[in-house]
Amino acid sequence: MENKKKFMKAALKEATKAYSKEEVPVGAVIVKDNKIIARAHNLKETSLNAVSHAEILAIQKACKKLGSWRLTDCDMYVTLEPCTMCTGALINARIRKLYIGTNDPKTGACGSRINLIEDIEFNHKIEVEREIMQEECEKILKDFFKILRERNKNGKTKNI
Question: pTM of the prediction?
Answer without folding.
Answer: 0.92
